[in-house]
Design goal:
Elements lengths: L2 E5 L9 H5 L5 E7 L5 E5 L12 H5 L5 E5 L1
Bound molecules: iron/sulfur cluster (SF4) (2 copies).
The site of one iron/sulfur cluster has 14 residues, from helix 1.
Amino acid sequence: MKAYITIDQERCKSCGLCIEFCPKDAIVISDKLNLKGYFVAEFKEKPQAECTGCATCAIVCPDVAIEVYKS
Ligand code: SF4
Ligand code: SF4
């Protein structure tokens, strides 16, 4: 089963919690700024297949910016 996440860039406040708690190290802080001036979190392209869809990132995100998809 493949899984991936999307991150709503305008909700992200760059707190880093999703990165800290992702067991697959699948999220990074990017060099893209959102309209509020935060560097937004981004799903890593390369280890995409390793995302298990555990949804830990979505649960810990205080700004409800992450959605998890499984296929
Ligand atoms: S769903 Fe789980 S494995 Fe996938 S990015 Fe989020 S915390 Fe990491
Ligand atoms: S937990 Fe949410 S607000 Fe914090 S860096 Fe991740 S996506 Fe952004």
